[in-house]
Design a protein that fits this description.
Number of strands: 16
Helix content: 25-40%
Radius of gyration: 21 Å
Strand order of the largest sheet: 14-13-10-11-12-15-16
Structural class: alpha/beta
Number of helices: 16
Shape: globular
Largest sheet: 7 strands, mixed
Low-confidence stretches: 1-6
Mean pLDDT: 86
Distance between the termini: 28 Å
Oligomer: single chain
Length: 434
Amino acid sequence: MHAPSSTSRPRRVLIANGTYESAYPLARTLVDSGAQVHIAHSDRAGDVAVSRLITAAHQVPAPRPTAEHLMAEGTDPLSDRFADAMLDLARRIGAEAVIPTGDSEVVALASHRKAFEDAGILVTAPTLRTARTMMDKYLAVTAAAAAGVPTPRTARIDDLAGLRAFAADEGYPLVFKKRVSSGSRGIRVIRSADRLDQAYEDFAGSPAMAQEYVPGEREPSINAIRDAAGGFRLVVSLRKQRYINTSVSTSIRIVPALPETEAVLSFLNAVDAVGFAAVQVREHPVTGEHMFIESNTRWGANSRMLLPLLRRQGYRAVDDFLAAWAGQGPYEGPTHRPEDGAAVSPVEDLLALESFARHRLTVGRRGGPTVAWSTVARAYWESYGRAKPLVTDYLFASALSDPRAAATTFRRALQERRREDLSFLPLGELTARY
């Protein structure tokens, strides 16, 4: 078993944002190591609050929208009822560590982290400067390019004239993005000039950027746990073979390091990322380069499969994650660099199959390209028949041991799927063979 170089494990942990995808595996891992876990949630994110694993659940105000903190002028933090409530709650329950699991929670705590430090409470949120650089897509792609990571041609867009000028230089298709967004909700692929003005109107009032369109569906990620002093405790490359929606994959595979890994680690050093960080890239189908898409400074939805997969390999990722934040000196231990392993989430995979069927029908009606059912069948055979993966599905497992949490999450998943814009649903590496 991998033994991290760390301080003692916290005995009481407060997780902010109770969405199932990342909060539940974190809670289960912490409880297995002997910690008491409390959940702070708002009405929009209470899935894990009903879990039998949780010592107590506490409702708090929702944080400000992510963009308000990231785009605020000056260095003074914005007031935020969520951050104030979290500090009061952490003091009241005696929490030794606070872990945010959503973008809004990360930036709210990042902007108020000094108050937690003054209270002697470890909060796993970066400085606001780091959060701004990593979560503002324009600042992130600029920093990534400076670190040597391949990036698509990018321009900041301040008005419609700027978007028109970029289109005139770049041609079509092109990508138009909000600088702060998640889950593909702030992205438009503009394929012709007659869609340009409408796309701009869709994002009116939001800071935006335009990028070269990079074709292809392979979007691997480079994930790392970085120590506050600059040492890397974990570096792992993941490929995501299928998705249940635009941001949650149902089948992942650990693969050998991508060629751009060292450049990505240089980027994480440059922005002073601490704890868990993920950099998503897109593989260009012609050049083979992995082009930077975005970066995140928190555990994401894939952690529900990645954490148990790493644990099976003998690596205590959550222990090292907390040690990376709490460590006083440079980390001098070995970097864990797994190069193989796979995990699937079968119940969610069935929902992914239904999503794919709806997507295929919708695209087919519009005359767009579709993927044959034989290809889909082969992709599922590759995952279940040949890969012999770790089957890790919290919906399935908790249906027996934690049924209220499973039912709550399943209900929310169905609600999200009814709202899903199928025209932007990524198929993942559905056609890939391994």
